[in-house]
Amino acid sequence: MAKQSTERVAVAKQAIHETRFDKPVLPVDLHGFDIIAEIKDRSPSEGALAVPTRSRLQQAEDYIQGGAAAISVLTEPSRFAGSLEHLEEVSAVSRIPTMRKDFLVDPLQILEARAAGASGVLLIAAMLSDKALNEMLDCAWEHSMFVLLESFDETDLARTSKVLESDRHLRQAEQGKFFAGVNTRNLRTLEVDPDRLNNLSSMLPAQVVCVAESGLHNAADAANAAAMGYRMALVGTAFMRSEQPQQLLNDMLVAGRGS
Length: 259
Hints:
Layout: H1 2-12, E1 34-39, E2 42-43, E3 47-48, H2 56-66, E4 70-74, H3 77-80, H4 84-93, E5 98-101, H5 107-115, E6 120-124, H6 130-142, E7 146-151, H7 154-163, H8 167-174, E8 178-183, H9 196-199, E9 209-213, H10 219-227, E10 232-235, H11 237-241, H12 245-257
Parallel strand pairs: 1-4, 1-10, 4-5, 5-6, 6-7, 7-8, 8-9, 9-10
Antiparallel strand pairs: 2-3
């Protein structure tokens, strides 16, 4: 997927010079424990996820009504059946910020996200060199976007802490635009390690809001994540498969805020 992402950049470079970046950037409103709710049509490990009777816009509205702080939209096409059009569709109607989730490897892809109406992007630390990561972050800051920097292990989290030693990145964290995520899914096998959130909790950087990603399915999972020090969760599969995503989201928020 990372290789295909690089190939997509080459195609995008032919069109980005005509792009306008005039869509509004929305802030992430935080309330102590919050949820980024995800829209994705399928998952490489879970298969098809979307409920046939619910449109993408209905899913987004359920998330908004349920109290989500932001909506993550998968745009990776080869394994997640995503596209920038999905992001643009949701961003056009969303009253809360949207985030592009993909295997981003070039600042141009952040510009694509901004042009589609996204207020933020997810970056994967393990996929980016220090130089590339700083270039990506600077591009996001230039366009007033937020970043969720995703980690999978101790090395990734150590790099996140190192990034936060820079005043320009720390300022973004203080303004609620830089989030540090821990993903429980193995980047290569796609299997979930439920112990990872706890095992890495002692390394969570104190300067940022930290996000528990993948493998959270219910209110008890949200409460456990909050008890470990995570102030946000990124939840996709559970919401996409739920007949009542709005209620499930609300239940998880109540549980997380009660910890």
